[in-house]
Amino acid sequence: MVGLSGRRWNEGRCGAYQCMAQASGAVHLVRVITDDLEYQIWVAATSRDEAVSRVLDCVPEGWSASLLEQGLDPNKAAGLKLRPGDVRVLRK
Asked: Is 63 a member of any domain?
């Protein structure tokens, strides 16, 4: 989605968090609900406390997010090749 400024809505926002990595190495699952009431699953290689806020920084204003209790299998997490601080939507 491109905004009025001609920039993508998330351009330059998510990548900034890569520099603020957490040492824990954990990967958390976050469910995002869009304005159309569709859901997306995101992964956040952050501390549990920061996962939802980091994902919300990467989605359009007005969308909601909640941390899932279910964790990501460590082998699957390793396959995503996330660096500490990365936030990414999982594709179906």
From this structure: yes
**Phi and psi angles of residue 84, each rounded to the nearest 5 degrees, phi first:** -55, 130
Positions of E strands within the chain = 28-33, 39-44, 64-67, 87-89
Give me the percent of the chain exceeding a pLDDT of 90: 60
The answer to the question of residue 7 being in a domain is: no
Q: Has residue 4 been placed in a domain? A: no
Task: Report the greatest alpha carbon distance in the chain.
Answer: 41
User: What's the domain count of the chain?
Assistant: 1
Below-70 pLDDT ranges, the chain: 1-25, 92
Residues 6+ apart with CB under 8 A from 24: 47, 84
Mean pLDDT of the chain: 80
| Global confidence as pTM | 0.72
Neighbouring C-alpha atoms within 13 Å toward the C-beta of 78: 3
The residue range of the domain holding 75 is 15-89
